Amino acid sequence: MTPVTSHHVRAVVGSAADGLVLALCGALLDHPARSAARRRLYLAMAGVAALDVGIAELPGLRAALADGVPPERMSAEELEVRLQQGLVVGAWAVVLTVVDGPLARALRDRGVARPHLLLGAVAGLGAALSTLPSWWRQADEGAAVDQATARLDEELAELLDQPAG
Known about the structure:
This protein is 84% helix and 0% strand. By secondary structure, the chain is mainly alpha-helical.
C-alpha cells in the first residue's frame, strides 16, 4: 500500500511542476533566441516534465517490476481531472501571454532586470496554487482506494488462513 504521505507528495510535486514549467516559459523571453541561456531553460523545462512523469509512474513501475502486475489504466475520472488541470495551466499561460508585453515594458522602465521571469513566476505561482486543490483531492482519493484495497487484502488473507471446517 502506498502511504498517504506519498500521495500528498505527488500532489505537491505535480502542482509545483505545473507552476515551474509556466515560470520557465516566462523566463525564456528574457534571453535572446537560440542563446545558450534559452537552451538551458528548455532543458530545465524538459527535466521538470520528465521528473513529474517519473514520479507519477514510479509506483506502477515498482509494482510491475516486483510483482509482475501490469500498470493500471487511468480512470475516466482521473483523466478528466488531468484535463481540467491542463486547462487551468493553459488559462494562466494565455493570461501571461496577453499581459506579458505591456507589463514587461512597464517593469523594465521601473528598473526590473528580468521582467519576463518575474511575470512567469507570478503566473507559475498562480497556476500551481490553482491546480493544488485538484491534485490534493486526487491524492486523497488514491489514498482512500489504497486503504480500502489493503483492508480487503487483509480480510481475504484471514479467510484463507482459517482452517477448513
